[in-house]
Amino acid sequence: MIDFDEEVKKYKPSLEVDEAEDAIYNNDSADMMSVIDRIVKVITDK
After folding, report:
1. What is the pTM of this model?
2. What are the pLDDT digits (tens) for 1-46?
3. SS3 state at 14
């Protein structure tokens, strides 16, 4: 039988996951609400 606690102790995240996490959390892109706000502002300012 697999000893779950023992397997968790051996776990090490892969580098690809760490790199993806950094890219996701450090991304400064606007969320959808911000994009919609900008579009509405451009349309109403004309």
Report:
1. 0.37
2. 889 999 999 998 777 877 888 877 777 777 888 889 999 999 998 6
3. coil
Q: How far is CA 17 from CA 12, 20, 21, 39, 40, in A?
A: 11, 5, 6, 34, 37
Hey, is 12 helix, strand or coil? Answer: coil
The residues, ordered by sequence, that sit 6+ positions from 30 with a Cβ below 8 Å of its Cβ are 38
Place of tokens 């051996």: 10
Q: Which sign, positive or negative, has the C-alpha torsion 33, 38, 41, 42?
A: negative
Largest CA distance in the chain: 69
Q: Take residue 18 and report the two structure tokens written for it.
A: 């760490």
